[in-house]
């Protein structure tokens, strides 16, 4: 048995990029920043703050919610799975892109926008 499960809480780095594909299926891409705070070890060594940037992909209903309610700077909770795509760039060099395919999302920012608190739908991803 194997498990591919990711849980992230972080801040949206830029406005979601939403496209509508054939049959009006929405797909949204966004970047999420998660930051580990700086700390000091017992021996006095300083460990600096570290920010990771995650590529998040949302399909169907989740993408539509992101299009309407998610904005740069918002704090969100994402549950999903890791997916790595391989491609060749224009110079023929093999590149990798690691994404989180979101299965559920919760809005944690409280801006009074009337946004749904939790949106949990099947991914709708065509794979």
What does this structure look like?
The longest helix is centred in the middle third of the chain and has 10 residues. This protein has one domain: Nucleic acid-binding proteins (OB fold (Dihydrolipoamide Acetyltransferase, E2P), Beta Barrel), CATH 2.40.50.140. It is globular, with a radius of gyration of 17 Å. The two termini are 21 Å apart. Strand 2 and strand 3 form a beta hairpin. A 5-stranded mixed beta barrel has the order 1-3-6-8-7. It has a two-stranded antiparallel ribbon with strand order 4-5. It has 127 residues and is mainly beta. It is 8% helix and 53% strand.
Major sheet attributes: 5 strands, mixed, barrel
The amount of beta strand, in percent, is over 45%
Name the helix and strand elements from N-terminus to C-terminus, one letter apiece.
EEEEEEHEEE
Query: What is the fold-level CATH name, i.e. the topology?
Result: OB fold (Dihydrolipoamide Acetyltransferase, E2P)
Termini, distance in Å?
Answer: 21 Å
How many alpha or pi helices? 1
The number of domains: 1
Describe the global form. globular
What's the total count of β strands?
9
CATH class: Mainly Beta
Structural class: mainly beta
Can you tell me the CATH architecture? Answer: Beta Barrel
Weakly predicted, low-confidence segments: 117-124
Rg from C-alpha positions?
Answer: 17 Å
Rounded mean pLDDT is 89
| Main sheet: strand order | 1-3-6-8-7
CATH homologous superfamily assignment: Nucleic acid-binding proteins
């Amino acid at each position: 048995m194997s498990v591919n499960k990711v849980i992230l809480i972080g801040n949206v780095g830029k406005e979601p990029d939403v496209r509508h594909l054939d049959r009006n299926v929405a797909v949204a891409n966004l970047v999420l920043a998660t930051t580990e705070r700086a700390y000091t070890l017992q021996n006095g060594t300083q460990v600096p703050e570290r920010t990771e940037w995650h590529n998040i992909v949302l399909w169907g209903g989740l993408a539509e919610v992101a299009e309407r309610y998610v904005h740069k700077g918002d704090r969100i909770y994402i549950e999903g799975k890791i997916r790595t795509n391989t491609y060749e760039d224009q110079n023929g060099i093999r590149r990798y892109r690691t994404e989180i395919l979101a299965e559920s999302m919760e809005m944690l920012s409280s801006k009074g926008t009337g946004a749904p608190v939790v949106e949990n739908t099947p991914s709708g991803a065509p794979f």
